[in-house]
Input
Amino acid sequence: MATLRVAVKPEAAPMKAAQISKPGADFELIERKIPEPGAGQVRIKVQACGVCHSDVLTKEGLWPGIQYPRVPGHEVAGVIDEVGAGVSAWKKGQRVGVGWHGGRDGTCRECQRGDFRNCQNLKIPGISYDGGYQQYMVAPVEALAAIPETLSDTEAAPLLCAGITTYNALRHSGAFPGDLVAVQGIGGLGHLGIQFANKFGYKVVAIGGV
Amino acid sequence: MYIDSGSTNAAEALQKLGGARVILATAPSSKAMSELIDGLGPNGKLVVIGATFDPIEVTPIQLISGSRTIQGWAAGTSADSEDTLNFAELSGVRPMIETYPLEKAAEAYERMLSGKAQFRVVLTM
Output
């Protein structure tokens, strides 16, 4: 992989971010210091970030407890450019994605049962901490997914929320190959849901005009 | 197959096909979701992933007849993300996207809200 070396240390250079300063405010393009990863975290040089309808939660302050200013974005594809203390499973230079599941407490009843998806203190990128509408972001290791080589960053990003949500919902839906499965809505989620449903061997009906 | 719910009663159209085993409701419209419940077949399930704050309307009779289910679903863990990415690699499933530079985040967000994007808006850095 070709790397462009820049004379300035990344930590000293500012980066760009698109943030929301308060509920209902417009996007602000700002420059700020590149964040440092803490223990159990990595820093990701963001290459692409999908724009999800759920970003409205941050933009309009519809999710309880959001601290502003906040950088939205939970469909992140990029490359690890720094690892924090105690991180052994991930290395600099690895391509990773971050989706809606941005971290868990590991101690609540649901986590104790292994039901991480329903963690009582689930962290969501762009809501609980700054997300992918910026050039560098920090994320905990439990939020990281490895990106296969054949997928580009812009292809991978939408798969990390729109993709996983449709794929996971369908594969847990109880439908078997040959069953009639309808996908309502042909947008960011729906156009992926239709493709997954087709590859799963369902008889697929797309419902548009919503 | 394609059903245009603007010009067709989609629930009736689904029943003519035998009734849906699953309806994956992605568009954030509770009204559209409510109108589809009668398109479910026996033991059919409406899986809700399009997030809104409006109520879905359903009567107990609609659920009792045919033992139908309405279920929500939220994303998944990072392992589920890897499954998704690997399945996309295996199967050739790819998103269709419109890209905007980070500097145009506001424009990109408006494009997403318009519902007219083909189909996912993606920011590039």
